[in-house]
Amino acid sequence: MLLPANRQASDVGGNIFMKLLTLVSILLFLEGCKTTIKTFDTSDKDKIGVHSNKFRGTIFKSSYPKDKLFISGADSINRFTPTNEDIQLAETILKQQIEKLNNPRVNQFHKKQYVDKNLNKYFRQYVGFINDKGDKVIHINFYWDKYTLLDRLHGYDDERREYTSDFVLTLDGGSHYWNVNVNLTTNKLERLEVNGLA
């Protein structure tokens, strides 16, 4: 049985409308998942605050004293101050490559400890430096930022998660403390180090 021409046109128009509506919904969903990063001045002239809809952290300016930085494999003399765009790129590379780089999952003994599954649960410290090849690299320190009230009652907390906190080298602590280098020149994630347990 043939449908009238106006009915066929109505069905085609309805299908196109539904496809467009679905596409718009998907785009809005993806935009909502996007990490929006904002930077702001802090009370410390050597530090810039970072806030997003998913995490927070600190950028250490190139003026931050080099003798307070403890980064293995980094020439802390040749540094730069990461921009908002640099942090956005570093976070994008991190999200795209961390799962692969984190295999095998060293010092992570069950799924709740996998750093690649908990990226938004860490406070970050960002340090920009130029490596010996001339590449721009951002070193990121990660500190667990989701201590519960029960954790705090048991004495588990870390007060170094402030925008003005100094750069800290942490030993032990398992997957609550880890670091990685993001090479902005080559778009590669490098030198993942997850702390061991004491």
Would you kindly provide a written description of the structure presented here, covering whatever features stand out?
With 198 residues, this protein is α+β, with helices and mostly antiparallel strands. It has two domains: 34 residues; 160 residues, no CATH class. Helices cover 26% and strands 25% of the residues. It contains three helices and eight strands. Strands 1, 2, 3, 4, 5, 6, 7 and 8 form an eight-stranded mixed β-sheet that branches. The relative contact order is 0.15. The model has no long low-confidence stretch (mean pLDDT 81).
Summarize the model shown.
The chain is an alpha+beta fold and 198 residues long.
- Number of extended strands: 8
Strand content: 25-35%
Number of helices: 3
Mean pLDDT, to the nearest integer, reads: 81
Poorly predicted spans: none
The radius of gyration computed from the alpha-carbon positions, rounded to a whole number of angstroms, is: 22 Å
The biggest beta sheet is recorded as: 8 strands, mixed
Quaternary structure: single chain
- Can you write the helix and strand succession as a string? HEEEEHEEHEE
Structural class: alpha+beta
From the N-terminal CA to the C-terminal CA, the straight-line distance is 77 Å
* Global shape: globular
Task: Please give the domain count.
Answer: 2
Can you give the helix content as a percent range?
25-40%
